[in-house]
Each structure stands twice: as C-alpha cells, then as structure tokens.
C-alpha cells in the first residue's frame, strides 16, 4: 500500500509539473480575448488604388535596396526578442537571461495566437502573389499578408522591452519600427500590413498589462534583465 501511495504521489508530481510547464509555454492571450475585426479596418482591396500605390513602394524599394538592406531584412525574418541585441548591448544574451527568455517566448506566442486567426479571415494575398514583379529576398510565407505578424510582434516586444528599460525607450522603439519596415524591404508585406500590425501590437501590449499572470512574469523578467545589464533596480525618477 505504501509503495502504491508513493507511486501515486510521484505520478501526481510529474503530472503537475507537466501541467505547469504547459501553462508556461502557452500564450498570455489569444484571439478569443482580442477581436481585431473590431479594431482594424479591412485590408485594401486587391484592385484598389491604395494597393497599387503600395505595390509601387515595394518595387521602388526593390530597385534601390542595398546588400546591407537585404542582409538586415533577412536577419529580421527571425521572430524573437534577441533581434533587439544591437540596441541592448553585449550582455543581452539568452544564456544569461533564462527567466526573461521564457517570458518573451510567451509574449511572442501571444502575437501568433491573436494575429494568425485574422490573417485567415482576411486572406490578403502577399505582394509576390499579387504581382510577379515582386522578388522577395526573405523566406516566403503561405499565411495572409494582413496584418503583418512581424510588425505586430516587433511592436509588442518593443513596448514590453521598453517598459523594462525605459532608459532606452527611443532606441528600442526605433528598432521595432525598423524590424517591421524590413518586411516591406524584403518584399513580403505591404505598407498597410505594417501599419495594421503596429496597431495590433500596441493593443495586445495594452491588454497584456491588465493581466495578473503577465505582470507577475514581467516583474521577474524585468528584474533579471536589469540586473544582467547592470542597471539600477528601478529607473531614475520612476517613483
């Protein structure tokens, strides 16, 4: 009997651990909590004047982009918080920030859990599917073009990161804007996709800040980050 009870306890512990792990890997928020149809205008129609103007912008960038611009857009095709390393400095590394890394995995997952649903609703064709003149230099995607997931995620990550390190807010948000714009340079998004993504990212960030589970994880990640970056526990003038 004692062995049986002990076995049950072990199984229970393992089950609880797996449950906690699964919960940690879940997004903080999904499309069930945020209705982008109510928050965003529909994408421009394929044959609209706006789409044609946005296509001209993509083709103009395609003609003028330098090898450095191409390399930057290709590097920014990766969706994670570590793309902000050039702003945050040499200490900004995954191996030094385990709690921070786990936290931002959930933040990043939240973008997809919200945006992917509405990409499937609007089904806007990517620029290279609309015009054979568009020659992407980054990996092509089968998902809808509107809104941009990268612009949403970059804006969301930028806002959250800037709230942790407000001393670098201007640089962080400039990097988030560049990250989003590189999707147009890369030939895989229209300008209106980017603008809608920035709105979506801002809305998701605001909604997350109202959640207790987010705020608790945010505080632990913020503390770890500021310690690793050798910043004061609280920014000067924050209180």
UniProtKB/TrEMBL annotation:
<protein>
    <recommendedName>
        <fullName>Acid phosphatase</fullName>
        <ecNumber>3.1.3.2</ecNumber>
    </recommendedName>
</protein>
<keyword id="KW-0732">Signal</keyword>
<dbReference type="Pfam" id="PF01569">
    <property type="entry name" value="PAP2"/>
</dbReference>
<feature type="domain" description="Phosphatidic acid phosphatase type 2/haloperoxidase">
    <location>
        <begin position="101"/>
        <end position="209"/>
    </location>
</feature>
<feature type="signal peptide">
    <location>
        <begin position="1"/>
        <end position="22"/>
    </location>
</feature>
<dbReference type="InterPro" id="IPR001011">
    <property type="entry name" value="Acid_Pase_classA_bac"/>
</dbReference>
<dbReference type="GO" id="GO:0003993">
    <property type="term" value="F:acid phosphatase activity"/>
</dbReference>
<comment type="similarity">
    <text>Belongs to the class A bacterial acid phosphatase family.</text>
</comment>
<keyword id="KW-0378">Hydrolase</keyword>
<dbReference type="InterPro" id="IPR036938">
    <property type="entry name" value="PAP2/HPO_sf"/>
</dbReference>
<dbReference type="InterPro" id="IPR000326">
    <property type="entry name" value="PAP2/HPO"/>
</dbReference>
<dbReference type="GO" id="GO:0030288">
    <property type="term" value="C:outer membrane-bounded periplasmic space"/>
</dbReference>
């Amino acid at each position: 009997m004692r062995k049986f009870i002990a076995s049950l306890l072990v199984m229970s512990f393992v089950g609880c651990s797996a449950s906690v792990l699964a919960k940690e890997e879940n997004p903080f928020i999904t499309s069930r909590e945020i209705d982008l149809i109510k928050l965003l205008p529909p994408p421009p129609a394929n044959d609209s004047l706006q789409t044609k103007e946005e296509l001209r912008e993509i083709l103009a960038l395609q003609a003028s982009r330098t090898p450095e611009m191409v390399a930057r857009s290709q590097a920014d095709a990766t969706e994670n918080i570590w793309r902000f390393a050039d702003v945050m400095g040499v200490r900004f590394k995954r191996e030094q920030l385990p709690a921070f890394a786990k936290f931002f995995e959930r933040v990043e997952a939240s973008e997809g859990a919200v945006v992917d649903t509405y990409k499937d609703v609007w089904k806007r064709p990517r620029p290279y599917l609309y015009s054979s003149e568009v020659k992407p230099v980054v990996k092509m995607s089968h998902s809808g073009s509107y809104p941009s997931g990268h612009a949403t995620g970059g804006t969301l990550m930028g806002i959250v990161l800037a709230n942790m390190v407000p001393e670098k807010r201007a640089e962080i948000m400039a990097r988030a804007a560049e990250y989003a714009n590189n999707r147009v340079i890369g030939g895989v998004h229209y300008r209106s996709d980017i603008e809608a993504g920035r709105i979506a990212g801002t809305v998701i960030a605001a909604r997350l800040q109202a959640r207790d589970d987010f705020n608790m994880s945010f505080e632990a990640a913020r503390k770890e980050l500021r310690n690793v970056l050798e910043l004061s526990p609280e920014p000067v003038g924050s209180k």
